[in-house]
Design goal:
The chain has a two-stranded parallel ribbon with strand order 1-2. The protein has a single domain, classed as Macrophage Migration Inhibitory Factor (2-Layer Sandwich), CATH 3.30.429.10. The chain is elongated and about 45 Å long. It is an alpha+beta fold and 78 residues long. The termini are far apart. 40% of the residues lie in helices and 23% in strands. It is built from 2 helices and 4 strands, in the order E-H-E-E-E-H.
Length: 78
């Protein structure tokens, strides 16, 4: 019985969105479940997928809050 946890920051995938949409979540659930079926032969009814949205201020990356890390990377690539 596989259990897959997907953690994403709470922000939209397009302008004007502030969270992952229900449609996007459904695609993630289907895609991950299909991978486990096709690669490990795990039946869909035995696979659990949990999506956790985390506020950006609770997400660190490279020793920095995620927004600060992104600004730093953007300024370095400019």
């Amino acid at each position: 019985m596989p259990i897959v946890t997907i953690q994403v920051t709470r922000e939209g995938s397009a302008p004007g969105r502030d969270a992952v949409t229900p449609e996007e979540k459904a695609q993630l659930i289907k895609g991950v479940s299909d991978v486990l079926l096709n690669v490990l032969n795990k039946p869909l009814e035995a696979t659990f997928v949990v999506i956790q949205e985390v506020e950006k201020e609770n997400w660190g990356w490279g020793g920095l809050p995620v927004d600060e890390f992104r600004r730093l990377k953007k300024s370095q690539s400019a």
